[in-house]
Amino acid sequence: MGTGSFAQNQPTIIPIETRRNALVLQTDKENHLGIIYFGKKLSQSAEYKSIPSQSRQHDGNAGIYNSAYTPSGTWSVSEPALQLTHGDGNKSLDLVYVSHKTTKENDNVSVTSIVLKDPVYAVEVTLFYKTYFQENVVEQWNVIKSEEKNPVTLQKYASANLYFIAKDYYLTHYNGTWAKEMNPEEELLTAGIRVLDSKLGTRANLFQPPSFSLSFDKPATETEGKVLLGTLAWSGNFKMDFEVDSYHNLRLIAGINPYASEYPLASKQEFKTPSFIYTFSENGKGEASRNLHIWARKYRILDGEGTRMTLLNNWEATYFDFNEDKLSELFKDGKKLGVDLFLLDDGWFANKYPRNNDQAGLGDWQENIKKLPHGIGYLVKEAQKTGIKFGIWVEPEMVNPKSELYEKHPDWVIKQPQRPEHYMRNQLPLDLSNPEVQNFVYGILDKLFTENPDIAYIKWDCNAITFNAYSAYLEKSKQKQSQLYVDYVKGLYKVLEKIRAKYPKIPMMLCSGGGGRVDYEALKYFTEFWPSDNTDPLERVFMQWEYSYFFPAITQSAHVTDWGKQPLKFRTDVAMMGRLGYDIVVSHLNEKDLKFSQEAVATYNSVKDVIFQGDLFRLVDPKKNDYAALMFAAKNKSKAILFSYLVGNRNGDGSDTPFRLEGLDASKNYKVKELNLYPETKSALKEDQIYSGEYLMTVGFNPIVNARRTSVVVEITVVN
């Protein structure tokens, strides 16, 4: 896969390289910048200039297809990456190469910046390509700047414009809705434009996440094929265009959704687009996802190379119905279970309109004196006396119409002044484009932490999307309403930056109704996310499998609940594949279930470092088989944790044949031990047998998953 350039005089060639891959840019005779190659890095970079001319498509009628950042209104009639209106009303734009430079942040990270300018108008675009050499990850974004006297209006302002040549293109994208997230679909891209987008306002995903995989020539498998994993780091409306052009080449344009989002750019102001992040592999989806995991843990996720606490959440035990005595008993249950933390969920606040259901109280963040007469501080101390840490739920961006906040500040609420209010979960978003609202939202967290410095965890929810988009603040300050979708997200990031500046280490879960903000900009500020409100373990096997292509296990919150028909062991095993939590009534567990759960927490604590920091290998796909299997292998290959589940037995009774393991050392010997055995049951495995790594990765291993053993967890340890 690659692209080339027609003959020209002294072109400027700009290679963007990682350890294995290269994106090569080159100027043409008009100084327009195009993509001449994408794929495996050549060992001799001088050969990029020899790429044959027929690889680059230039049509005098349609312009240059392989532009590195396609402008609108001049030589190109292709889908633009940048579309704007100048201060004088002119809508044309041309961008020519001016200069470029590469700076090294360290031995692994470099940033190449390329300046493009319009020869007629005072508009400048700088393309940024940040490379993470060892991880084969590229992060790219753009900065748009105007020196025009009158404001420029941005209509479309994408983050990335890539160009590929291959025999065929297979796009895997995801759809769903609440509690049905991350359903994959793979399709062959044909002529025309395939669009993935969202228009939700407060968050990126309810129906479709801003992440995808793209296979070249043929569908990639876990271990074979050319594949690009891409994701947009933006917690709001996004749009991705996949255009197979007239020459059967593919143009990808990704960024903020221009829907209802024209953005003014005053003279000397800059607009920075969000990051588009991708990795490319010639060895299948497994390697590509491990690239992203290593990069994310090291460079993006808060405390990505650290650890995570186990917890007990009260939501499914009590919902809104609790008091201090009931919570104190739950603290003891958490201690008995052996978890690190108790998490108090929704319902602890508001007095004039008490938060006894989801219809009132949001916005009024004072402790409910009837439920909690002694306040949050008392609960923190009671939890600590019990020997457990205390965390708390908030949804600070939202308001119920039935609240004191709504009564006092209706102008803080996103709603159309002349239309009926339209609710999701009986609530509306606050207007985070408004600096006063930003201060209010920050103040909610700051007050909690200031008054209760021992709060050890925050669960940050965001359950509603934006209907009837309108900002009283933008109207009053004579700004454009079309800024709202963008300025809301920018306002959210300002709040989170301020919180992290003062409280850099408090673990925070990004909830957002389940998967609503699963993006790498939000995850700068959070230690983990909530994949779905659906905690049925059978469904979670599939969901967590799909999320794992883009996000490492350390980011995925997984709770043992009473959802589903599977036994407690199955539910626990599935939750151990992420950050383990519980949302059950511990006092309702029978003696064996309690003993199993206590032992499972201890077991998890002994192996979670491998799950969090190890390399993930997806071995048996649940979408194509009656069972699923995946494993996490330590970097030094000394230990691995294998998870296997029966997901359907219509055509058989589970795994009756071995499957090949990965990530081990072929020259070392290993022993196996089954973990999480239910009390008074014995393992079906031969635990006294020694296997070579070569045997396990060539002949394979059978964990013996069947209708009597529906989930199996195996520790594989090197024998010295």
TrEMBL record:
Q: Does the keyword Hydrolase apply?
A: yes
Question: Where's the Glycosyl hydrolase family 36 C-terminal domain?
Answer: 628-713
Keywords of the record: Glycosidase, Hydrolase
What InterPro entries does the record tag this protein with? Aldolase_TIM, Alpga-gal_N_sf, Alpha-glycosidase_related, GH, Glyco_hydro_27/36_CS, Glyco_hydro_36, Glyco_hydro_36_C, Glyco_hydro_36_N
Catalytic activity as recorded in UniProt: Hydrolysis of terminal, non-reducing alpha-D-galactose residues in alpha-D-galactosides, including galactose oligosaccharides, galactomannans and galactolipids
Catalytic site residues?
A: 461, 533
A GO MF term = alpha-galactosidase activity
Segments forming domain Glycosyl hydrolase family 36 N-terminal = 31-266
EC number(s)? 3.2.1.22
Q: Does the keyword Cell division apply?
A: no
Q: Which family does it belong to?
A: Belongs to the glycosyl hydrolase.
Q: What is this protein called?
A: Alpha-galactosidase
Natural source organism? Dyadobacter frigoris
Task: Give the lineage.
Answer: Bacteria, Pseudomonadati, Bacteroidota, Cytophagia, Cytophagales
